[in-house]
Amino acid sequence: MKINWEKGFCSCFSCHKISKKLLIMKLIVILLVLSLVEVHASVYSQSKKFTLDLHGKPIREVLKTIEQNSKFKFFYNEDFINVDKIVDISVEESRVEDVLDRVLVNTGIAYQVLDNDLIVLTQKTSNQSESEKGKVKIEGRITDSSTGEPVVGAVVMLKESKKAVVADVDGKFVLEVVDPQNESLVVSMVGYAKKEIPIGSFTNFDVRLEQEVTSMEEVVVIGYGVQKKKDLTGAVAVVNVDEMKKVRSTSIAESLQGQAGGILVTSSGEPGKMAEVKIRGISSLNNTQPLYVIDGVIVDNADNINPTDIESVQILKDASSAAIYGSRGMNGVIIITTKKGKEGPVKIDFSGSFSFDKMPKKLKVMDSREYLYYNELSYLNAGIEWPGRPAIGQYIPNTDWQDAIFQTGITQDYNLSLSGGNQNGNYLVGLGYLDQTGVIIEPWYKRYSLRVNSSGKRGIFSFGENLTIIRFDQRVTQGGSFSNALFMPPVIPVYDPNESSHRGGFGYGSVSFPTYASNPVAIQKSVKDERRNYRMVGNIYTEIQILESLKFKSNFSADFRDQTIKSIDYGYTKRYLTVETRWNDKLFTAFDQWLTLIQEQTLTFNKSFNKHNVELLGGWSAQDNRVYNAGNEGYNQQVKGLEQMDLIGTMNKMWGSEQHGIMESYFGRLNYNYDDKYFLQGNIRRDRSSKFYYYDKKRQIGVFSSFSVGYRISKEDFFEPLLKIVNDLKLRGGYGTIGDQSGIGYYDTRASIERSGPYEGYYAIFNGKVFQGAIQSKPVNTSLSWEKKTTLSIGADLAFFNNRLLATVDWYNAITEGILVDLPVAMVTGIGLSPSDARIWTNYGKLQNQGLELSLLWKESVNDLNYSIGFNFGTLKNKVLRLGDKYREGAYNQVNRTEEGRSVADFYLIKTDGLFKSWDEIYSYTTVVNGETKLIQPNAKPGDVKYIDYNNDGKIDLNDRQWCGSPLPKFTFGFNSGISYKGIDFSLFITGVYGNKIFNGLRNNLENMNSPDNITADGRPWTYNNQSTDIPRPVFGTSDNAKMQSDKWLEDGSYLRIRNLQIGYTFPSLKNKRIYEKIRLYVSGQNLYTFTKYKGYDPELAGNGIFELGCDWGQFPPVKSFIVGLQMSF
Amino acid sequence: MKKILIVLIFTIVAISCSDDLFNQKDPNRESSDTYWEKEDDFQQALNAAYSVFRVPGYFSRWYHVLMISRSDEGWSESPNPYFQAYSNFNIISYNDDNAEGIIWPWQAIWRQIFYANQIIDNIKLRGDRVFINNSELKNQILAQAFAIRGTAYWYLAVTFGKGPLLTNSTDNGPVVGQLEIYQQALNDFLEAEKGLPKSWQGDDQGRITLGAAKGMAARVYMQLAGYYMRPNINNKDKANEEWRNAKQKIEELLTLGYSLAPNYKWNFDQDHENNLNPESIFEIQFNEGLYNGKELGMHRPKFLGLVVEGAAWADAYPRKWLLDEFKKEKDKDGNVDPRLDVTLFYEKPGDTVKYYGKTWAEWNQTEKYKLTQPCYWRKYTRVDEPGRTGEDYSCGINFRFLRLADVYLMYAEVLNELDGDRNLAVEYLNKVRRRANMSDLNPSDFNDKQKLFEQIQHERLVELCGEATRWFDLERWGYLHDQNKINFLATERDAEFANFKLGVSSLFPIPNREIGLYPGLTQNEGY
Hints:
The complex is a heterodimer. Chain A is mainly beta.
């Protein structure tokens, strides 16, 4: 039987009330169920009798009446079938065929009763008798690509002649084609992606349809199981992987940037450097990294794992969602599922991209001519003779130090995968190669990755493994290159054969042009620090479906990493004004190994009865962590050019150690929902870690629990009037506790004997000989226990306008207690080697994080136009409730300060009030101290910085510091939009942060005007002729202008960045030849433009510790990239 | 199916982690609970306690910088304001976590006490079992631990003058003042005497000897005597008792067979250390260079040496009056006191000796390194070592913490204070003078206590100048406790004493961070 077909899919008569999709979904279910009882079905159409008496009703009504009174379902396309015709019908005890014959008489509608009681209505074709010659009979079967089940009712249409048939209960179809060479099959079914196949000379087709899942129906992976997204009660962000992958990222962490609310990612452009992720603020003063679970393998980080392998990413943000990972999920859990093979013949996917990377910008610094002028002036102002005065005719170089180290980096990324499978198993083998050279000279990163995922099934048993093996090699960027490229005076040449130290032939500061800076080219070339790494992450599992409702899973996983560092320091670098340790060929090698083994046994019970749906999970897991390291260091290579430990002249030191930790956990989860309306989830977990003191069991064990509830209001009857607009509304709330133990080392609760000692060791010297010493160097706190984070999270999921707009809102308040902080202890206890070391670990710290998260997604398809617009937004309020110390400062600066009652690492600086413009201003800047009027800055001169004497003591010092803002953004956001029309697609991705401050350490050095280093050229220093500037006058030596701890260098860190802009074209399928499935070409620009007031290279700063956030000391900024890429599937 | 389930559950329960796995032993370090089971464990712990002598807060650096620059011998012009503050008594705003000169000695003292206490505790606890056939070794180790602890308490008494009395490694002790700390140090030295040998042989050379314990005890007795003689205490009887105790100890020491080295210079070089120098009583051991990445040398030369072309820092200069004091008296041959050229580096017409490569005159021609001071420290530096252009942080010369010449001069002082045999006192001065080629004093010129005292002061200065004993002398002689004497020091010797506050500046402030961290520990008066 045939139906004519033109566009879209057929609609049913009862579609008017309920959304099409839902109904069709229902229909599919019915079809599937019916297909199982086909034996009865054929009988049914013969035996079912109707008695009808309807007058002046549209055909639609008649059909509806039949449906209501029988098992029959009608299936038709309203575009062709006019069911509004008014008819009369009066029958008694008639078969359905009799009824339809009467009703449809003279309507031009034909019908066919299928075996499964489905009745398809089609238009009668008038030209049935048209030429039959040249007709080719083709047949085929349509199945679901993931389950292998037949797709009953799928519509198979000929593209040109518009003929169509419906697949039968076995998914089979037969068609006659007139001109097969120019004809294609278009197979469509609700809930599946449409598929087009050129016919050519083929006559048998095996069509696999891929399920098209609406995001509410999406299944998400939660700890030790899956759950429908619409049933979630915890705060889980599901990342749109397709959009995410449009951004070229070298790491999984980096690719998450801007993809979900409440996730703060800072990345760096350094080849091989992994981005930092913070979920919902700062939960601990120790580890703030989330936990990663890759295909069920729990790992501390997803570093260096090929992001191309990702199939889906879920972020568990709150206690109720992450609690099942208990002690390990305090900073959130990122669940990654990698790609698996799908049923079908071998599928080959290839993707490649080639990218040119550049520094985001160059900063303006002075050239030699200008530098000489202000350099001389700075000596003049200091009353010192200018050592730099050139002799007549002397050549002065004009080096652009940024140009000297910047280069165009190239990133190449190629991935190839083979996958396939059948009903009983699937496989995927993927290969990846990434090669990245830095945007500054020397650093590079190369990654070779292999993935093998496969699974198999036999009866109640299923088995599988996921494995990735990665080798990554890296040459590490030397610190200080970016800052020195700015600070180094332009009058020094990059290479200077006459340089007195003769180290590497590089140019350095000299008596004429002393400088605190060093040659950045020499810095990069001086140390060859190369690292070779292997990492293997994988698991093997077995599942036994013991009963229909009971499943046992056993999982063994391993994360192994091996690193070899070989670093040779040629000692080229030299500074002129500060002391620098000089090495003579220092060779450093280190070998590190990390091994984590985890086994997990879980039992899942799953049952639905009436409207109750219950899932119960119980499990046991044990984990074994081992760390090994060894290394050595020596000086003076015996053979120039051969750098090996065997050839070392002087061995300096050797070291090696190992660590071992055990953790065991029992966990359980209850998931219950009633009628998809009321939801309840409870988690409990008991963890025991060997890090804590064995003889204090209570502290070694942590018990963590959480619960969450959900309520789908949209299912209530009273909600019905609103359903047209709001299709779905679910309220969620959760409360729970998770723990963490990563703040302390494996043996920090053991009192032990030290042998290595401080700077001078524990060596005793007797008779000129050295004797090893050993002693317990400090008392320890044996009562340490778990950090505990308690979160209250409230949220809602909404769907509007036929599910085209999805919205999620979350609010949370999280308090972490018992944070492991080291508190100062009196040195009289004999503890420690310095005041900063005289500290003991306690569970004293307490932090609070609060935030609001919103995500919106609009998705629509209009004819061939598909578009989506996504937006996410997250606020963060962080507060230190207990710190222990009066305050904590960053390790290297007095710029940040962490204090109870404030946010972590707030800026604490002396405020400035421009420059002194005149002597009058200086002399009138006074205060009264003890009844005496005092000049506040008696040594100032016009052109110097005016500081605010905050404590009114008549002098400017560190006591005048004030709170000046936070390095943490008030909110972060991401905006993602994609449009595709026919083969062309376009996407735009914007990310940004708002409300944070950055301390620009680079500008501090460029504009403090008291060193002989280079000077910013953004403006000009203050002189009597140039008073309208905020750059102070140049004075060599110590002057007030140098105060680093002032707000003069504090800048607004907000930014909005065009993270990615991409245009792609997918080639249309070639007629007749099935050479490829898909070819897509794209060009893309990454970090194209950043709207910001920040004057440094980039406002995104990675690599700062918790107590010194937001400081720019010349970190490697994210780079700007232009990418050309190709994706092919066969 | 049920069977499978039962088997599974049973298996899981059966294989769950054994309790023992959670008692992970640190594979890199021994546990303190199971250590102290072998003789060698105690030896190694003792080595660690000895090692503290070498840390910068102790005899490697700060002991010298502090004792010299604070006393009237020296002063500081270091660009590091902390150095200046310790030297010129304006410490108050330089007592923070960066205050090396305060924090480091404090920390070194308490580390050493903690280490020594661990040894003492564990010898008491398990010594009989571990040293079952070797009670002599046990007593030696215990005695050395006592002597080390005594030295630490003595250092505490003369610097901070306050702190908790910790006599075991686990309990808190009461916070006490200078007198009690001196007494604790004394008790430790007396305790140490019980187990120490007269001398050590072979690879034991450099350990604390019986003589060292007696000498240190004598030192403490004398400081205690000085304590009782302070104007605000003025307890003559107590003072005399301590002088008598000191006399007794010194006389015991003098029977142990020490003798003056034939050459004064032997006391400051690397060729005559330990048993090679009959004069040496207590030496702090240093080796030049690194061992397995750890520093074994003494920093003193780098900090006090000549500041030319980065050779050293000269963080404490000698005062000019020292030079004058030396020049008061020529030696037997009419030359300057030979000890002067060992002690100080100064402008000497016709001097051809090169210091770090150049003569005084040659340095003075270099605009940048003009030698603007009348004199610089030469003792314990290597300025005239051929080929040496500067000091590094590592110097292998042992620091002679106590030598016989000092004890002779102490003996003379004790005899004088007790109105004892002044002829004998003068004889002991002469013993020291003779070695330096100085002519003998005539005992009949020194019948007067004050007159002899004046001479002893002079003799101690020229003999011990730059050996960091001066501060104790000033304290014992009452200079730090009498405003007139402070004024004298300020006007005649060391202008920095103008800032000296009576009742305050004789002690350091307790590191501010410690206040409130130990129960009952309060800041010293005036800080």
